Amino acid sequence: MLKFLRKNSYISIGLMLFALFFGAGNLIFPAFLGQNAGQNLSVAMIGFIIMGVGLPLLGVLVMGYSGAQDLLELSSRAGKIFGVVFTTLLYLTIGPFFAIPRTGTTTYELGLSSFVPSEHATIVQAIFLAVFMGLTLWLAINPNKLVDRIGTIITPVLLLSMIVLIIASLVNPMGSYQEPTETYATNSLAFTSGLMEGYNTMDALASLVFGIIVINSVKLYGAKTKEEISKNTLKSAVIAALLLALVYIFISNIGATSVSVLGFQKTGAGVLTGATTFYFGNVGKILLFVIVFLACLTTSVGLVTACSTYFVRLYSKINYKTYAIILTVFSFAIGNYGLAAIIQGAVPVLVLLYPLTMVLIILGFLNNFFGGKKVVYATTALVTGAFSLYSTVTSTLKISISSVDNFLVKVLPIQGDFAWINFAVIGFVVGILLTFVKKEEKK
Length: 443
What we know:
The chain has 443 residues and is mainly α. Helix content is 80%, strand content 0%. The longest helix has 33 residues, at 282-314. The protein is globular, with a radius of gyration of 22 Å. 48% of the residues are buried. The model is unreliable at 1-6 (pLDDT under 50).
């Protein structure tokens, strides 16, 4: 099996990419969606897969299609200052400030905390985080071995562990699909809610970063020409996307069939804990721990690798290994604040970064359409960023500027979490018009 994976390198790289994306949140979201969607599950999952699988797939592919060396080069098309600020903030967000420490704390709280008496929770969590970050550092310290360690060893074990749970749920379902909850009551509501759940996985943020890991891995396995790199990147990304979609479908099915036994749970964590206990008793808790541990470890390794590589480029006087050590130690310290604090702290930053990330993905694919003009990148990023900053400040400080909000409600065709699309379109149109103005001035 290992020999086959190494021979067909794009399969190993695809398995690695799947594992990098697949963290504990990717287990929790579809399980929770399944419970609430019930009989409208199929429609809800279409929306979820579009946002939770389709967008990350595009994020990986755009790095190869755009011809950019990395995210810094792509974002710098809107201006050098914007490129450095945006890219650094994104790497810190998906790195040591939030995402890396979250992988360790999520593993502890979802997979291990049930075995630990509450009076010993703090010290046990600290010990576990030290071991978890130590393993992360060991696996990330030599990025050239990332595909072999994750793609050909860890990912198959992770998939096998999940297959055990999935087969049990298919052979002996806990119950039948129930009536959907209010937010999934109709097909249109179910589709929209599915879109939002997929949107909330935030995998699109990481896709621009993981795309570079995939491209570098493809080159490492012998791809040299742009055509070879694009072809193998596409193959690897499609494999990862298909695996993500299949796992999401089966996990959501577990959630949808669990209501009659478990009742409605507050989060997907309760669904998974209840399901594994139902099928395997106390052994189920161990199985869940293995699944969550491997899922979060691979994501943590990928993020440390990507962040260390970026900071070497930004400031090369510090080497890769030193950055990796600094990142894991800092992540260990942040992780001890606990999962709830990390999630709460990340929300404002994600509100700011996600629309800008989406804009860069779209512009990367449209690059040839507008000739890669800097003004188009700049105006689109500027207008979108201004709205994102406004949304971040008002939502974080819980303030409302009624005159502005009333104007936006009356004028904008798209409301809610996707309101940034209006401003992205405005910025793009302005950029295109400015390119025509410059052409006329030259004439």
